[in-house]
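#help-structures
NK: newbie question, is this the right format to request a structure? protein is Membrane protein DedA with SNARE-associated domain
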Amino acid sequence: MTEFILDLIAWGGYFGIFLLMALENIVPPVPSEVIMGLGGMAVARGDMSVVPLIAWGTAGSVVGNYFWYYIGRNIGYERFRPFIERNGRWLTMGWSDVETIHRFFMKRGGWVIFVFRFMPTFRTVISLPAGMTRMPIWQFVIWTAAGSAIWNTVLTYAGILLGSHFSQLDRYVGPVAVATFVVIFIGYGWRVMTWKPKG
């Protein structure tokens, strides 16, 4: 994974960062931690500059998240009901849960989008309900860009601190990413087995 990212960054420069960050949000788990971390290392070597790196990375994050926002907006809220009723167990939610989430999102959707930008996996998933609840596009873009910019800045400076030792980033981020997905998978399996529809 690291070699692929390095090759794409070397080939595309800032545009390569943009493509990788968009891809990270469309088809996880291309890890933003590694992408922006390696970008930060490129800054430390003098191959890139901080501001363009963060700007292109954030633009990629916004575009990638907009992909799921667009899908959610076209599916709509009510059209999602038959799918929920057929697959409630595997989704571990019923229609009443969707209605609760919908009401919550309508009231506090902006800061939810912002906060979820700092969470693995969920920072992409949250774009779907944003579209389904018809959050204004400008609001979605602003909150997504704000959260993504902060997260990308943190990752970039982490990469700068590591300098050119990209293997250190892969050594620690790789196991953490794997452990995170294992925990999510186990938690999901437990929820599927114990889930019961309300009413």
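mod (FA): yep, format's fine, and the tokens are attached above. The chain has a mean pLDDT of 80.
NK: thank you!
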